[in-house]
Design brief:
This protein has 300 residues and is mainly α. It has one domain (14-298). Helices cover 75% and strands 0% of the residues. It has twelve helices and no strands. It is globular and about 55 Å long.
Length: 300
């Protein structure tokens, strides 16, 4: 085989693996809205986030013991701390607190706002140009989220303020994820995925630890199903899904990876319909469609 053809084949295979990794992570993360919603009936929100990443950190540290990884240099620890704070601590704090009040379907739609926040941040911090198409997309996306949150009603007496508060909290995870992906790009050219993921997970877990003292968890109330959900969140949704997502970012751009986030609401709606019996209203479907359309145009 000609060397050029070999390189092209290798590049194609690498790109295909990256997209499969992104798809795997997306499906797993879509399911977490249902897992968290269920487990919150047994475990307080902050405690659940801590247990999830405590388990993930142990799994990743064991991985590092079996397959030794290089250490992060001192000058890059600030990026590790920022990645752990945004992608682990704040992301999961807002997600779990928001799911106390919002439905899994709402949460999935609002969580997909990451590309919108990335476009806004690019303009504010890096002077990236916002085209008329992006502006239209941003307006369209936020209009869609308003329709979802209000259920198409503008009368104050008919609004569910608990749901609105939950939707607002969940929308902030898009901002956290945008920051996380930007800081991640500072580390990916220098270190293997296993190193970065271990350091960010441990740092994020340390930041989560003080938050459990605002709650009164009783771990004895967690049944077998609850612990299985926590293990799933820790090992599959945190360690493995984050690993495959970060590994894919070695090959594809952040904006390309962001496209996969569009699938999360669709997958979550189907799972929530089956397991939580959450039937989306016409306003949820319309608002979700407008939101995803806006996100698509904003990412063009």
């Amino acid at each position: 085989m000609h060397p050029t053809t070999q390189r092209q084949t290798k590049t194609t295979n690498s790109t295909l693996r990256a997209h499969l990794n992104l798809l795997f992570a997306t499906v797993i993360w879509a399911s977490t809205f249902i897992n968290i919603k269920f487990t919150l009936t047994q475990v307080p929100a902050n405690t659940l986030a801590f247990l999830r990443f405590f388990i993930a950190s142990i799994a990743l540290l064991l991985f590092n013991c079996i397959f030794p990884q290089p250490f992060i240099k001192k000058q890059d620890l600030r990026w590790v701390a920022l990645s752990g704070l945004t992608g682990v601590t704040l992301y999961n704090f807002f997600q779990n607190q928001g799911l106390r009040y919002a439905g899994a379907t709402d949460a999935a739609i609002f969580s997909s706002l990451t590309p919108i926040f990335m476009a806004i941040m690019g303009y504010l911090f890096y002077q990236e140009k916002i085209t008329p198409l992006k502006i239209m997309g941003i307006i369209l996306a936020f209009s869609g989220t308003i329709i979802v949150a209000t259920g198409g009603s503008w009368q104050p007496g008919s609004l569910n303020y608990s749901r609105l508060w939950g939707d607002f909290l969940v929308s902030l995870i898009g901002l956290c994820w945008a920051f996380y992906n930007i800081t991640l790009k500072k580390l990916l050219p220098k270190y293997p995925v296993g190193t970065i993921l271990t350091y960010t997970s441990v740092s994020g877990t340390l930041f989560l630890f003080p938050l459990i003292f605002f709650e009164t968890p009783n771990l004895s109330k967690i049944n077998l199903s609850g612990w299985l959900n926590i293990l799933y969140l820790g090992i599959f949704a945190s360690a493995l899904a984050y690993f495959f997502w970060n590994k894919a970012l070695h090959t594809v751009t952040v904006s390309t990876a962001g496209v996969y986030l569009y699938l999360i609401p669709i997958i979550t709606i189907l799972i929530a319909l089956i397991f939580l019996h959450e039937i989306p209203t016409i306003y949820t479907i319309l608002g979700g469609f407008l939101t995803l359309s806006g996100i698509y145009f904003a990412g063009k």
